[in-house]
Amino acid sequence: MKTDIEIAQAADMLPIREVAAQYGISEDELELYGKYKAKIADELWERVKDRPDGKLVLVTAINPTPAGEGKTTTSIGLAQALTKAGKSAMLALREPSLGPCFGIKGGAAGGGYAQVVPMEDLNLHFTGDFHAITTANNLLAALLDNHIQQGNALGIDTRQILWKRCLDMNDRALRNIVVGLGAKADGVVREDHFVITVASEIMAILCLATDLDDLKERLGRIIVAYNFAGEPVTAKQLNAVGSMAALLKDAMKPNLIQTLEHTGVLVHGGPFANIAHGCNSVMATRTALKLADIAVTEAGFGADLGAEKFFDIKCRKAGLKPDAVVLVATVRALKYNGGVKKEALGEENLEALKAGIVNLEKHIENIQKYRVPVVVTLNSFLSDTQAEYEFIRNFCEERGCAFALSKVWEQGGDGGMELAAKVIETLETKESRFAPLYPDELGIAEKIETVAKEIYGAGKVSYTPAAKKALAKITEMGFGSFPVCMAKTQYSLSDDQTKLGRPEGFDLMVRDVYVSAGAGFVVALTGAIMTMPGLPKKPAADSIDVDKDGKITGLF
After folding, report:
1. 29 to each of 94, 118, 210, 265, 444, how far by Cα in Å?
2. pLDDT band at residue 382, thresholds of 50, 70 and 90?
3. Can you tell me the distance from the alpha carbon of 260 to that of 82, in angstroms, rounded to the nearest whole number?
4. Which of 130, 194, 310, 409 is catalytic?
5. Half-sphere exposure of 334 (CA within 13 A, CB side)
6. Is 458 a known active-site residue?
7. Is 468 a known active-site residue?
8. Less crowded by CB within 10 Å, the N or C end of the chain?
9. Annotated catalytic residue 422
10. Distance CA 188, CA 359 (A)
11. Over the stretch 25-40, which tens digit does the pLDDT of each residue have?
12. 126 is known as an active-site residue
């Protein structure tokens, strides 16, 4: 059996000009990055912005397990199947981060015969968007330290600096550092920190901005520190906005590539969903809605994180209205939630399935709270049995959800025809009455409590003294109307990754709260979640290599 990278490297790709032409995009509206990838020029949006939108389908999943769920694979396979079914379909996905690519997760180009290509380009440097974001982030950090070094006219309190440097790599040694050591000319000595690029506020801003003017306005609102009077100091006050925007002007443009079956894919932005808001850019999603009858997008990790943030942050901020949600699960993952060890997941076990399906049940209930129709799909494995399929099918249909098996990893678009038919039927027969979970005017603490209780199943929310103080400060500064971005483990509905299934009545601990004023949301850090991940004992990087002909191996 071929590996994912072998399948991708054997792909017969169309020149990106031909892929673009399928959607009425002219060559003048592309900025080419070689033969198989391009950025969308600003002129295209100006031409299509007044068109009516197509239908918007979100693909999300149950909580991730070591058994795998295949959310991105399903998104790609579904778009390929919709195209085969005669629909004009386009994908809008996130760009992968180098951190997990060389760490534990691997790439994010899908799998099997449901992949986007060129796979190696996408998983590595792609068109340089993440490098631009990293550089803009660190330029602001350098300007901040230089301002302090050159006399500190703004009276910045070095004990209250909020802005962190970033790097698109898992490097735990950079979580807590000291800068400015050495001679007087080497800067002011202070504690500093790194976050991974996908957790940077610049990433969130780029993904939520609607145009260059909006980008610059958001950049200017970034709070980098407080002064000695306790007042916020912004990037605008440091005169950083113009230079940061210059670094980001090309990164603002969505990237066009293709699936193995030549369906168009707009790949743009990539905030993590466990530590950021987990959605691709507003610009990419809006463009896909103008170019296709059906735009398929995804949100990171499980529906408790990615889908919640898609609904409550991205859709709220961008005025998007999802028409349907595809919720991805596997028999194996549900049995894992039911207490079965990974090595025994290939055996039929209806009792474990009954115990673990409560995780799927909670995600169904959560999505229905947003009043959007749900289609549940199972990624098919050879070890699955018909009895297990029927149990899950009946379970879903009893809860008002359409159900379909997916075999897109093995068969590409052909393996997604059942799912595509259910999605088309849902779009044509069921109305979405989408509304966010909470209103803007609800207080920050009340918003956190609403998500914790309604989406996670918590009994109460507790705060550390530092979190309480930060919450009061943020409210006092006038950011109480912002939505909340919950930073939480992806492996459980709770803030404890060991609690599988459907934990209920637990105490959710918020250990810190901070405002991303440019992005327009408040981040609540829960549990032991880290904004700079570390590498595992055996990183994926150990197996990645390139031969004398430039062929990459080990990337998955």
Report:
1. 21, 21, 18, 16, 42
2. confident
3. 14
4. 409
5. 31
6. no
7. no
8. N
9. no
10. 50
11. 999 999 999 999 999 9
12. no
